[in-house]
Structures are given as structure tokens and as C-alpha cells.
Design a protein that fits this description.
The complex is a heterodimer of chains A (126) and B (695). With 126 residues, chain A is α/β, with parallel strands linked by helices. Chain A is 44% helix and 18% strand. The longest helix of chain A has 13 residues. The N and C termini of chain A lie close together (10 Å). The mean pLDDT of chain A is 89. The N terminus of chain B is likely disordered. The chains are: A alpha/beta (126), B alpha+beta (695). Chains A and B meet through helix 1 of A and helix 16 and helix 17 of B.
Chain lengths: 126, 695
């Protein structure tokens, strides 16, 4: 793991969630950065310019959809792929995420870590 | 030619027209309410006056001695009843039940004089003078005058004493009219008798009778019994109708009689009148309305409009009420009106107010106006009428404070579900019985619709709460579930350091606890809904201070993580109390946890518990004060309701059911205690208080 490995930014406030997520990604060779709320998340997107963002929706300070919008409208960051990891399971929410530019939307409680890991590896390499 | 020849002079025409007018006024007053004694008396009184006037008309045109005598006696026959009827009328107005004997004597004498007046002992011979003729007074006429005057004076005395006793200004005004009318009658009336004593008098006294009738009628309207405007309007319409028809009839009949004779001459005009009556009536009605009377509402129109409103807005409570209110305000031309609707908690909240720029207000179930209608029988409150009842002072004060003068209940399924509060008319006139009846009719017609709309409204709100609950609950539970299965998934994979595996399992474990807590909160909330909490409060003797310390130590780790310091102040002596330990521990956990959660980092939350005396009773007072996000509007009103989370709270911590304070409130109240908060506003920190009674 050095600069050659891809960086993933996880924007998630629950420790019990980002810790296993990080462990799983590090095991697959990614470098992982954590942001615990929407504001911190946007900052780190700007400064770290990750190769992938994993974004939760229900965040403190600003909600994930707004964060997604910001990322996708900012010229420096709009090419960064974003995957939504949320527990909002409604059709409209999923559609909204995809409409705003997310590449994929996972409902956390419905998928195992391995599925997320495999998807990321196959679409974004490692 | 059938048309007879009349000697038309202005006074005699006036007498005839007045006679007809007073007659119609009498008929309409009677038709309004055939059961009211006041109406019946007025009818008889007016009939007498009408008879007097008609007789006067005939008398002006009588030529021979016989006809003069006949018509003069006709006049006296009508007039003998006037004074006793007036006296009786006065008794009803002052609501007197005594003096019946005087009344019966009066009637007996009236009949006596009725008989005598047709004989020569009363009047005899004829006195002719410049303006007319009159029979000459004899012995019994003098007696009659004494009797007549006596009852007039008694009427006057009754009304005047009653007037003096009144404190109420509106009552005084009503009586003033009656006294003025009396003054006119007594001023001019006696002149009518002068010719009986061979003193010639110009023909004006009889006009006093007409004026007097009209003034009395106007006074009666101030009693809210009928609308003088309606009567004048109908009187004018039917008077004109009668005039036109008579003229047409006579004209056509005489025209036709030139060519045909016999009963056919009556047939043609009758036919014309039958065919032309309705269009003629409508024409006269619309013309008089547009010339003399402002466009008044028609009851049928209003009912039609109401039905349209019901059909159009059906279940949309707010639009329905808005349009309903507007319909009334425009038709009755009132300054303001408000509709209050029953809410699930039992209080009545105003939903639509028109006029006066008033904010919405609320009446609790204990409010005097609500209590008034709880009995179920009373139909409406009219401030001016209720003012006479000394027991209703509270209601009057409330109505004045709110600015309304009429309250009409809205009922559905025998339950009071709403109130219609109406202010004064723009013209400041009192409400007539007709208008109050109309409002009651509208209230009862719309009661069912309003009930449906408000229940539907409640249902929508409950549905919203349910949807919100489902979405919050599903999210709340998915988060710990995710943590559990991801952490265990990784731990099971193996190949991890022991320390890491342990960490993962710890996370999973804590999540199971969190989930258990959430379920617990949910089910506690459900139990509270079902009313099961109050029954289950098992108390035991315990030290409140110990409970506080337990809760604080269990939350220290979380506080440290959020960089919030907890400061605790407890008294030296134990705070002994009998409470349900689990429930109180829960309440304290909720409050301290909230304080930590919503505090800004690097601040202190201060906890104080002590025992004090309040209004002679001992109680434990607990307070926790933070320097966090504070509580402003609108959250301050709904903080203790289910699922409620303020904006600030959700931004800081989007997870959360919103059940904590709801549960805390119910647990404390089940102990007979109280929970409340003080906050300067958003961003200014909050202090939560608990009070637990010790006895």
C-alpha cells in the first residue's frame, strides 16, 4: 500500500460501520480515509482527491444527497465516482441517488461486505 | 259602471292606506309566530287600530246621519280594546305575573263598553264641522274616557318603573322607544275625542295611531322577535300588489261591462289576475328591493351555496371552513367570525378566522363556553340576551375579551365537535331571531361534513406519523443490523489479529444492545399509548442520589468521547424516595444522554439534585443544564411528543427515534411528577427540570 494503491474515502458517522468497512477495503489493498460528517467529507474530497467515495446519506451537519450534489457540481471533483451506502431503502431515495450522479446504491443491511468489496474491485480495480 | 263614486280627500286616503298597512303589519307579525303571546297581543292591538283607521276613512266620507252614526260606532267598537290590549302588552314586556285581576277587569269593562258604545247612552246625534262629522258624547262616553285613560296610565306606569329599574343600557333603549310611542299617542290621541264634545279639530289625531303602531313594532324588534325591515318590505310589496290588482280589476271590469253584462264582466279580470299574479309579484318584489331595500340574503340561496361548498371541499377541512366562514360573513355582513374545531385531546382550536387580524386561539375543555354546551340542550349564545343572566358573567367576559357576540354550536352524532363564533354586524344592529335560526340551521347542516373533514384530517396526520415512524424505525434498526452482520462477517473470515477480531465483536455486541434499546423504546411507547404504564408503577424505597450517580457513571465514556464534562452536585443527606427504580433510571438516562448528545464539544453539563418544599409539599428537584443547541420555536411546543426531533437535533445526530422525551414525560407523570425545560433559544443551551413529589 503506497501511493500506487487506490484511495477510497468513506463518509460515514457510525464507528461500528466504518471500522469493518475500512478493514475489508484495506485487506483488498485500498488506502482508506474516513470522514465522520458531511462537512468533513467535502473537505477531504477536495484535499485528498480520492479515487472513489463511499457515501452514507444520513449524516450529521449536512445530508448525503447534498454532499453528492456538491461533489458532482464542483469541477475539480465531479469525475470522482461515488457509491452510496445507505440504509434508506426506498425506491425514490435510490433513484434520487442515481439521478444525482452516483454510480451505484447499496442498502447496507441488505448486502454483505464481500459483495461491496467484489463490486468495487471489479469496477475500480485495486 | 260598477266603479262607485268616492269622495277622495287626502286625509281619508291616508286613513285608508294606514288602515291597510297596519292590517298587513298585524298579519305578518302573527304569521311569524302564532304561539307567542306578545305576537298575538300585538296582532289584536294592531287590528283594533286598523279598525279605528278604517272606520275613520269611512267616517270622512259618510254623508247621512245614519251612516255617520254607524261608522263612528264602528270606530268606538274597535277602539274600546286598545287600552286594555296595550296594558296587557306592557305586562308581558315587563314579565309581570301579578296584576291579573286588574287585567281581567279591564277586559270585562272593554266588552261592556263594546256593547254600550252601540247604543244612544254612549253617543247620540251628530256634530258636523269643517273637517268632518262626529257623534256627540253622552254619559257612558265620559265613563269610557276615564276607563280608557286609566289603563293607558297603568301601562305607562308599569313601563316607566321597569325602565327605571334597568341597569342594562340595551334594555333601556328598547323601553325608551315604547315610552316615546306612548308620548306621541297621549299627545295626539286625545284630540280625536274632542269632536265628541263638539269641539272641531283638524283631521290629524288618527295619524297618531299609525305612528304609535309602527314605533311599538320597532320596539318589539329590539326584543329580537322579528325583523321590522322584513315586515316593512313585505308590507310594501303586498300593499302595492293589492293596489295594482284592485285597480286592474276595477278598471277592466268597468271596461268590459260596457260591452257585456252579467257575471262575465267579472270573469275576464279574474282570469287576467290569475295569470298575471306571479310575474307581477316578482316584478314588484325585485323593483322594491332594488329601490328601497339593500340586497338581502335569501335563505334558500345560502343553503344552496352551503351544499356547493360541501360538495366541492368535502373532506378538505381548511378549505371547507374558509369558504363556509366567508359565506356567513358576506351574507350577514359581520365584522368577524371564527370556526373552532375539536381536536383529539379535547381542546377546541380555531381553524379559520375572518376579520380582525387575530391569531388562531384555543379553548380548553374546561372553558366556560365549552362547558355551557356540554349539557347538549342549549342552542346558541347571544351575548346581549345572556347578559341578563347573572350566572353567565364568565361567558360574557370571555366573549368580550375574544371580540365575539354570538356562539353557535356545531354538533355531529350528538357530540359537540365545533363552535362558530360570530362578531357584531358591521351595522351594529342586533341579530334577529331569523338570523340566529339561519346560523343554527347552517351549523347543523354542516355539522356532519365538518366532522368528516376533521376526522379525515386527523387520519391524515396519523398516517403521516405512521409513515414517518416506519421510515425512522426501519432506518434505526437497519444500522445496528448492518453493524452486527458486517462485524461478525469479518470476524468469521479469520486471518485477523486477535485484537482486531475482539474489536469487531465488541462493535457487534454494542449494536445488539443498541437494537435492544431501540426496540425497548418502541414497545414502551406502545405501552404508553395503550395506557399500560400507569398501572405498572411498582415503587420501592431508594436514594435518588444513588440513581443519579449510577446513570452518570454509565454515561461517562460517551461524555468523554464527545468531550463533554459532567458535573454533579448532590446534597450530603440521602434523597430518600419511593419510586420505580427502572423507570426513574430510564428517565435520568434519557436526560443525561440528551444533554451529552446535544452539547457542543468542550462544554460542561451540570447536574443538580436536591430536596425542597413547594407550596407546603416536599419534593425532589433534579436539573441538568447544558450549553448545547438549545430549544427555540417551533420545537418548544412539541418536544415531548412521539417521534419529534427538532431540526438542530437531527442535524447533530440524524439517528434517533424521537421517543426519549415522550417516554420520560409519561414515566415522570406516572409518578405524579413534572418535567419541563427552560431555554433562551437556539444555540443558548437548555436546562431540563424534574420534580418528584415525596408524598
Amino acid at each position: 500500500m503506497g501511493k500506487l494503491s487506490k484511495t477510497v474515502l468513506i463518509i460515514e458517522d457510525e464507528e461500528a460501520i466504518f471500522i469493518p468497512l475500512r478493514a475489508m477495503l484495506e485487506e483488498r489493498g485500498f488506502t482508506v480515509i474516513i470522514a465522520k460528517d458531511g462537512v468533513e467529507g467535502l473537505e477531504k474530497v477536495q484535499t485528498a482527491r480520492p479515487d472513489l467515495v463511499l457515501l452514507d446519506i444520513l449524516l450529521p451537519k449536512i445530508d448525503g444527497f447534498k454532499v453528492l450534489q456538491e461533489i458532482k457540481t464542483n469541477s475539480g471533483t465531479k469525475y470522482i465516482p461515488v457509491i452510496i451506502l445507505s440504509n434508506l431503502g426506498g425506491e425514490e431515495d435510490m433513484q434520487r441517488g442515481l439521478d444525482l450522479g452516483a454510480k451505484e446504491y447499496f442498502v447496507k443491511s441488505r448486502v454483505v461486505l464481500a459483495t461491496i468489496g467484489d463490486y468495487i474491485v471489479s469496477h475500480f480495480g485495486s | 259602471m260598477i266603479v262607485a263614486s268616492f269622495y277622495f280627500t287626502i286625509p281619508s286616503i291616508f286613513a285608508l292606506l294606514s288602515s291597510i298597512a297596519v292590517f298587513f303589519v298585524a298579519m305578518f307579525v302573527l304569521f311569524k309566530n302564532t304561539k307567542s303571546i306578545l305576537h298575538i297581543l300585538f296582532f289584536l292591538f294592531s287590528l283594533s287600530i286598523s279598525g279605528w283607521l278604517f272606520g275613520t276613512f269611512k267616517l270622512f266620507n259618510a254623508v247621512s246621519d245614519e251612516s255617520i252614526t254607524f261608522w263612528d260606532r264602528f270606530i268606538y267598537g274597535s277602539a274600546v280594546f286598545i287600552s286594555v290590549l296595550l296594558y296587557h302588552f306592557g305586562l308581558v314586556i315587563i314579565k309581570s305575573v301579578s296584576r291579573r285581576t286588574v287585567l281581567y277587569i279591564g277586559y270585562v269593562l272593554a266588552f261592556f263598553f263594546l256593547v254600550i258604545s252601540q247604543t244612544d247612552y254612549f253617543t247620540k246625534g251628530v256634530f258636523r264641522y269643517e273637517w268632518g262629522a262626529h257623534t256627540i258624547a253622552q254619559f257612558w262616553h265620559h265613563v269610557f274616557l276615564i276607563y280608557f285613560t286609566a289603563y293607558f296610565l297603568l301601562f305607562f306606569a308599569n313601563i316607566y318603573t321597569y325602565y327605571k329599574k334597568q341597569f342594562d343600557e340595551s334594555e333601556k333603549i328598547k323601553l325608551r322607544y315604547i315610552l316615546i310611542a306612548f308620548a306621541i299617542l297621549f299627545g295626539f290621541g286625545p284630540f280625536a275625542y274632542l269632536p265628541a264634545y263638539e269641539i272641531p279639530v283638524p283631521p290629524f289625531p288618527f295619524m297618531a295611531g299609525t305612528v304609535f303602531s309602527l314605533i311599538i313594532a320597532y320596539a318589539i324588534t329590539k326584543h329580537h322577535l322579528f325583523d321590522i325591515q322584513t315586515i316593512i318590505r313585505l308590507g310594501t310589496i303586498y300593499g302595492l300588489l293589492f293596489g295594482v290588482i284592485s285597480f286592474v280589476f276595477v278598471f277592466i271590469a268597468s271596461l268590459v261591462s260596457q260591452f257585456i253584462s252579467g257575471w262575465l264582466t267579472l270573469l275576464l279580470p279574474s282570469l287576467l289576475i290569475t295569470l298575471g299574479f306571479m310575474p307581477l309579484k316578482n316584478f314588484i318584489e325585485t323593483t322594491t328591493d332594488s329601490i328601497f331595500f339593500r340586497k338581502k340574503y335569501k335563505v334558500e340561496d345560502i343553503i344552496k351555496k352551503l351544499n356547493t361548498i360541501v360538495h366541492t371541499y368535502g373532506l378538505h377541512l381548511d378549505e371547507f371552513l374558509e369558504n363556509f366562514n366567508r359565506l356567513i360573513v358576506d351574507s350577514l355582513r359581520v365584522e368577524r367570525a371564527a370556526i373552532l374545531v375539536l381536536m383529539p385531546k379535547g381542546n377546541f382550536i380555531s381553524r379559520k378566522i375572518i376579520g380582525g387580524n387575530m391569531p388562531n386561539f384555543e379553548l380548553k375543555p374546561e372553558h366556560p363556553i365549552i362547558q355551557y354546551f356540554k349539557g347538549g340542550e342549549k342552542s346558541s349564545i347571544d351575548r346581549d340576551v345572556l347578559q341578563k343572566d347573572p350566572e353567565s358573567k364568565e361567558i360574557i367576559n370571555e366573549l368580550d375579551r375574544l371580540g365575539f357576540s354570538l356562539v353557535v354550536p356545531i354538533e355531529a352524532k350528538s357530540q359537540l365537535i365545533g363552535l362558530y363564533l360570530i362578531g357584531r354586524k358591521k351595522s351594529q344592529d342586533p341579530f334577529t331571531k331569523e338570523e340566529i335560526d339561519l346560523l343554527q340551521l347552517l351549523a347543523s347542516e354542516s355539522g356532519a361534513s365538518i366532522d368528516n373533514a376533521r376526522l379525515f384530517d386527523e387520519l391524515k396526520k396519523l398516517d403521516q406519523i405512521k409513515s414517518k415512524f416506519i421510515s425512522v424505525a426501519s432506518h434505526q434498526l437497519r444500522t445496528p443490523l448492518t453493524s452486527i452482520h458486517w462485524n461478525i462477517e469479518l470476524a468469521l473470515q479469520g486471518g485477523l489479529k486477535k485484537k482486531t477480531a475482539k474489536e469487531l465483536l465488541e462493535h457487534a455486541y454494542r449494536s445488539t444492545l443498541a437494537m435492544a434499546n431501540n426496540f425497548d423504546d418502541m414497545f414502551t411507547a406502545l405501552d404508553i399509548e395503550e395506557g399500560k404504564i400507569n398501572l405498572a408503577v411498582k415503587k420501592e424505597q431508594t436514594d435518588f442520589g444513588n440513581l443519579v450517580q449510577d446513570v452518570v457513571s454509565s454515561l461517562l465514556k460517551e461524555a468523554k468521547k464527545k468531550e463533554v464534562a459532567l458535573e454533579v452536585h448532590l446534597p450530603e443527606i440521602p434523597l430518600s424516595c419511593a419510586v420505580n427504580k427502572e423507570m426513574i433510571r430510564r428517565v435520568l438516562t434519557i436526560l443525561v444522554h440528551n444533554a451529552i448528545l446535544y452539547s457542543h464539544p468542550k462544554t460542561t453539563a451540570t447536574i443538580v439534585a436536591l430536596q425542597e418544599e413547594e407550596k407546603g409539599k416536599n419534593r425532589i428537584l433534579f436539573s441538568i443544564s447544558d450549553q448545547g443547541i438549545g430549544i427555540g420555536e417551533p420545537e418548544n411546543k412539541t418536544l415531548f411528543t412521539r417521534f419529534y426531533r427538532s431540526e438542530g437535533a437531527m442535524r447533530l445526530s440524524p439517528d434517533g427515534f424521537g421517543l426519549g422525551l415522550f417516554i420520560a414525560k409519561h414515566f415522570i407523570e406516572a409518578h405524579g411528577g413534572r418535567i419541563w425545560f427552560v431555554s433562551e433559544g437556539r444555540g443558548m443551551g437548555t436546562v431540563f427540570f424534574l420534580a418528584l413529589p415525596l408524598e
